[in-house]
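hey m, so remember when u said the tokens were messed up on ur end? i reran from scratch. heres the input so u can diff it against urs
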Amino acid sequence: MIIGVPRERMEDEYRVAITPAGVRELTAAGHTVYVEHGAGEGSSIPDEDFVRTGARIVDDPSAIWADAALVLKVKEPVAEEYGRLGLRRDQALFTYLHLAASADCTNALLAGGNTAIAYETVQLPDGSLPLLTPMSEVAGRMAPVVGSHHLMRPGGGGGVLVCGVPGVRAANVVILGAGIVGMAAATLAVGLHANVTILDRNLERLRQVDHHFRGALETVAASTHAIEESCLDADIVIGAVLVVGARAPTLVPDTLVAGMRPGSVLVDISVDQGGCFESSHPTTHSHPTFMVANSVFYCVSNMPGAVPHSSTHALVNATLPYTLEIAELGWRQAVRGNDPLARGVNVVEGKVTYEPVARAHGLPYTPLPTVL
């Protein structure tokens, strides 16, 4: 199979969807790997490293989209790439998609007529998300760091030192959601000696969190009232809510933000799924923040793209086994024998095969078995 890896076009996205080690595995299995010139530079992977393990460097991205039976990306196609989606109709695209938050990308994929498999909806029987987990861990660990930076006065915040000093309180950090992202954020926030509160609706999960941190943070059952009380007393609020494949619920309305401390910082990791703060909208690493009332909103939709070397290797470690299976069997046969991978199929030949995406955009839903 010809596998194509284009350079990412999203603004401030420096990751790449394959590593030299991944290329070696694919070429050793008899596949051909095209990598666009410069695709790995942002992750400190020069073209020569890809060539050394068997890749072919291609200058024209359209050639990749036209020739490859499987295209690997990190982020969803952007407008610049929409015209390339239909260059090969029997093509499979394997990437993060977050389609429930983007009608434009969904419609472009439907018009392209190819198959789109989303990393973030590949789901194991225990409910875990093996291809989302590594980037969730990265984004979660970044959140207290970027939050503490923007809490400083030069970062736009109220000038609070997150760890405090003797005689002066540490910052109050509130984390909404105790999943992979929330736990990663809590690990860093506790390590920064902040006063940490984590909220979740799942009481058993909160028991696990309490046991894990041995009382180093406060766990609170999530409710509208509890969220309001926690946010009003917060210096940093981290939105770490995930509804698999669907839009994130709005948990923090603007009326609540208006009552928060001036200079407080809200970090919305859920923004790639629409965001869990009312005024959230995607920002970039070049222009990461905006103000709502007197609070700083940080809503970068590709947070792990800021640490691309670490993120790229973590991502490919997780995706490569699935990539090898698709390349060996073709996507149809691969998903027939792999139910977790089948859950990743969002679009097939102009039909939406993932129900939360269809529901988000009011589109017809076609169960995957009917198109296999």
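this time it looks ok to me. The two ends are 20 Å apart (CA to CA). if urs says something different then somethings off w ur setup not the seq
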